[in-house]
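testing teh design pipeline on a random one, pls ignore if ur not involved
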């Protein structure tokens, strides 16, 4: 996503695993929800062409900055409390 737009279909299902976008196959719905969360926090944006919004995703300027910073250092694995907090944050984000 740093250099070009990536389509949802390329990330979801077995295609995403083969291209190293995901570690396990994801349905399009789960993939779209995860990418929507990254849009909400300002990391990604949907690609737009002359006819409107497409199914492609690109990094925002903030996303580019984060990728550059992450290249400089290795992150420790997420702790159990980090994972729990992430789960709660994402669950509370769901529309009821």
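output:
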């Amino acid at each position: 996503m740093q250099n070009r737009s990536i389509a949802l279909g390329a990330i979801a299902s077995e295609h995403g695993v083969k291209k190293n976008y995901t570690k396990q196959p994801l349905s399009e719905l789960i993939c779209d929800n995860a990418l929507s969360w990254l849009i909400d926090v300002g990391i990604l944006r949907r690609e737009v062409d002359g006819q409107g919004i497409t199914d492609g995703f690109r990094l925002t300027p903030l996303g580019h900055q984060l990728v550059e910073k992450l290249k400089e250092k290795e992150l420790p694995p997420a702790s159990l409390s980090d994972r729990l907090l992430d789960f709660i944050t994402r669950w509370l984000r769901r529309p009821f």
